[in-house]
UniProtKB/TrEMBL annotation:
Domain of life: Bacteria
Name of the protein in its database record: Uncharacterized protein
């Protein structure tokens, strides 16, 4: 399976091998792999990490944007992407000589996904979305809140280079906020950064994959689409991650 395949749907072999003959198959995102639970899944489990570990028929797993070998069940994808990014940035902060790192979540907006047989996925604004935004922000923050304190260490060239390599490994080196932090902490420039507050939008990292997964609705009568999938792809949240770095 090549790297462009970011979504795995587990189905019986007769569906996995025959779904392409349905006319609706043309509306499926190209990044979706329909996986036979009998033949394909055992091989995939040798190549990739699945969380939770035992995929079942009808399950949808989405590849982590930060770990190419890891797939999360769709109901846990958003939360784990937030956690992964926070943990990575916290580690980068420690390598840059930070004394603490704190992360929290805000939900900027929410829309509801819908499927149209003619145009595919569409989104509509949710009326009275204040409570929904607040509830989602509280839920994600409760699960993903990170507050780390480090033993203060002198920034070194080696630590700085490790921070750059870690940012590249997680695909974050192109992020202007991450690149900006690295540039400000460059020990060659003798920068004296004491505090940095960064607000990042997680929309592309979370929603791009979930939007693609939503195209599974094109074959609702063929695939097993469970309540879990429906519940966790219904709303499209614009998530902001607020991160504070302290170097005092």
């Amino acid at each position: 399976m090549d790297d462009s395949k970011n979504i795995i749907l587990v189905e019986p072999d007769e569906i996995a091998s025959g779904y392409k003959y349905w006319k609706e198959a043309g509306q499926l995102a190209k990044s979706i792999v329909v996986c036979s639970d009998e033949y394909d899944l055992p091989e995939f489990q040798k190549l990739f990490y699945f969380y939770p570990q035992h995929p079942q028929r009808g399950d949808v797993y989405v590849r982590s944007p930060f770990r190419n070998d890891t797939f999360y069940e769709v109901s846990q994808f958003q939360d784990n992407v937030v956690k992964e990014k926070c943990h990575c940035l916290s580690k980068i902060a420690s390598l840059l000589g930070a004394s603490s790192f704190n992360a929290s979540i805000e939900v900027e907006s929410v829309k509801e996904r819908g499927w149209d047989l003619n145009v595919g996925m569409k989104t509509i604004k949710v009326d009275g979305d204040f409570n929904l935004k607040r509830q989602e922000a509280e839920r994600v923050t409760k699960k993903c809140l990170i507050s780390d304190t480090y033993k203060k260490e002198q920034l070194t060239i080696q630590g700085y280079e490790k921070a750059i390599q870690l940012a590249k490994k997680y695909g974050l080196y192109g992020d202007p906020d991450v690149r900006g932090l690295l540039e400000k902490c460059n020990p060659i420039d003798c920068s004296m950064l004491s505090h940095e507050k960064v607000v990042c939008n997680l929309t592309s990292e979370v929603n791009s994959s979930l939007d693609l997964a939503f195209s599974i609705n094109a074959m609702k009568g063929v695939f097993t689409i469970g309540a879990n999938f429906v519940e966790h792809t219904k709303y499209r949240f614009e998530i902001l991650e607020i991160m504070e770095y302290n170097f005092d």
